[in-house]
Write a structure and sequence with these properties.
Layout: H1 8-20, H2 38-46, E1 53-55, E2 73-78, E3 93-97, E4 107-109, E5 129-130, E6 133-134, E7 146-154, H3 155-159, E8 169-170, H4 172-182, E9 191-195, H5 198-205, E10 216-217, H6 221-228, E11 232-235, H7 252-260, E12 264-267, H8 272-281, E13 285-290, E14 300-302, E15 306-308
Parallel strand pairs: 7-9, 8-10, 9-11, 11-12
Antiparallel strand pairs: 1-15, 2-3, 4-12, 4-14, 5-6, 7-13, 13-15
Helix pairs in contact: 1-7
């Protein structure tokens, strides 16, 4: 099987298993968001007891780095210097241009982001993504926001290390061990966040070429998450390990999560403040609000998820 842990045939079998476990009918466009009920949102909101809000996003990167060769551009269009009138009204203004998908900035993947075997989630044709944007499954599917119980599993914490090294995998056994160690359980409708320690490693050792070396979930772990019927999946990495663990598929977790299971995927989040709050409060679940921009035909959006305790 060379260097791959899953052969092409094994990955295909896994793909079809999780796809069968995640069906909502031919008309479905929501995917995993179907797993969140109004009652679950009310229950998550009822668990708020401190009124404390914590961001799960990293600051947008605007400097060239090994993992960010084409960073966001922040341009001031009107400033407070130069020809500002001495009296009366004036405005400071600026603009931002950035890639939605990359290897640094926190973002959410829409269900039209991953094309596999010529199709999108739920068998829709890839032709739905045109030069003018996506006519199906764009990030507008989540335009009203995603609200529910957030749950953080801190894999380095339960392994007793500061971070997972590039190339390491979070397995299904890791997920179960983290549940036991943190005294939590993944439930239907959860917005599940899996920490690999990427941001901590980057801060300590500097940026590196994450396109070719990063820690992430092992694709086989997605079967457990399909069984638990989660609504959303996110990580402080991009969820996929590099090098890939599946023969012939560079981003197997993206294929399984987005294309097969219909999960909106959040990549390159930052959990430092969240971990500190969870440890202080001895609580790893929280009300979570994810509010993508209303980009009606886009394949994703920059995002700043908020945990509320």
């Amino acid at each position: 099987m060379s260097d791959y842990e899953l052969s092409a045939a094994e990955f295909r079998a896994l793909y079809h298993r999780v796809k069968r476990m995640s069906r909502w009918g031919p008309a479905d466009r929501l995917g995993g968001l179907n797993n969140i009920s109004p009652a679950q949102v009310v229950a998550a909101a009822s668990d708020v007891w401190r009124g404390r809000a914590v961001s799960l996003a990293a600051p947008v990167g605007s400097e060239v780095a090994p993992d960010n060769p084409d960073p966001a551009v922040h341009q001031m269009t009107h400033t407070g210097t130069g020809s500002v009138p001495a009296s009366g009204l004036s405005f400071a203004m600026d603009r931002v241009a950035m890639n939605i998908h990359g290897n640094t900035d926190s973002h959410i993947d829409a269900l039209c982001h991953v094309i596999f075997d010529g199709t999108l989630y739920n068998g829709l044709s890839a032709d739905a993504v045109t030069a003018a944007g996506a006519t199906e499954l764009s990030i507008e599917v989540a335009g009203s926001g995603i609200v529910g119980r957030g749950l953080l599993l801190d894999i380095p914490r339960v392994r007793g290390v500061p971070w997972l090294e590039p190339g390491d995998h979070v397995t299904a056994d890791d997920v179960v061990t983290a549940e036991a160690g943190q005294e939590v359980r993944i439930e239907q409708g959860d917005l599940l966040f899996v920490r690999v320690g990427h941001r901590s490693r980057r801060q300590a050792l500097g940026a590196w070429d994450t396109a070719n070396a990063r820690a992430g979930l092992h694709p086989a772990a997605l079967e457990l998450l399909a069984e638990r019927r989660i609504a959303v999946l996110g990580s402080d990495g991009n969820n996929d390990t590099a090098p890939s663990a599946a023969e012939g598929v560079d981003f197997p977790v993206h294929v399984l999560a987005v294309n097969a299971m219909g999960l909106h995927l959040l990549d390159w989040l930052q959990f430092d403040d969240l971990v500190a709050a969870c440890e202080e409060l001895n609580r790893w679940s929280f009300l979570c609000v994810v509010a993508p921009l209303r980009l009606r035909t886009a394949t994703g959006s920059p995002v700043n998820p908020i945990a509320i305790f």
